[in-house]
């Protein structure tokens, strides 16, 4: 009698990155603590993969926004009124927008910012020969609090660019990452390519696994520390790994359900043509081609980290 041989699949993402579906998420495929309303578009018992219906309208212009960040140096802020220095970070960050339309994709806007983040009221502005780091207060001295203050600046920069560069009333803005902090922007969808939690109960989660490329799940409402509409979509992928090619999209909780359904159908049609390819991008297909190109450009715009580090040390007198 021949012993059964265990089968396996290889996750298509480069092992240098976290898996598209984190291991801890696999352990949470049962009920989660997230608030869920599953019958927004269909009854929870009637969930099945959805194909966008014939005649679905797609936006003539899709704007894709993304941001990057980098810590240039860890610093200590010395406050004369305090016996101990306060930790901080000097960071560079940038945001940009790519416009995708009938003529192809083009860069619409790029902006770079730099700041020194610390919980100290004495956080200084730092000027060097190569860059100026403005002073920004963080809510606390821990690395998590400093990182959150930095991420808020990246998000705000993306919002500012989107507000300044949206001149049409029929465009659609896709932001790379959760929609949090940007729910007030009209016609805007968050795009999440890495899953750190599996929010759906088992029966609905199995629908995600059953998606074919170009299909989506029904729209649902979810609430953690904030509420939003969401749905999952599968991009073209050749792997059979769990949730390969799966991305989650988010729209504002205040939007009418029929409007969110139209957004979901439109993006399910548009996204496959923008999917990354594995021989060019280790995070394909979820890392869309315009996002990958924009990230590369933005990181270049941040400047030489060694030069900036030496400049910061020079400004500190060390």
Walkthrough of the structure:
This protein has two domains: 11-59 and 172-287, no CATH class; 65-170, no CATH class. Mean pLDDT is 87; it is low at 5-13, 15-19 and 22-31. It is elongated. 24% of the residues lie in helices and 27% in strands. The protein has helices at 23-26, 143-165, 202-210, 257-270, 289-301, 305-316; strands spanning 35-37, 62-77, 86-101, 104-118, 126-127, 132-137, 172-176, 188-192, 220-223, 227-234, 246-252. This is NurA domain-containing protein. It comes from Nonomuraea dietziae. InterPro entries: RNaseH-like_sf.
Mean pLDDT: 87
- Distance N terminus to C terminus? 73 Å
- Using DSSP, what is the number of strands? 11
Helix content: 10-25%
In total, how many domains does the architecture comprise?
2
Radius of gyration over C-alpha positions, nearest whole angstrom: 22 Å
Question: What order do the helices and strands follow?
Answer: HEEEEEEHEEHEEEHHH
Low-confidence stretches: 5-13, 15-19, 22-31
Helix/strand structural class: alpha+beta
The description of the largest β-sheet is: 11 strands, mixed
Task: Give the overall shape.
Answer: elongated
Query: How many separate helices?
Result: 6
- Beta-strand residue fraction: 25-35%
Strand order of the largest sheet: 1-9-10-11-8-7-2-3-4-6-5
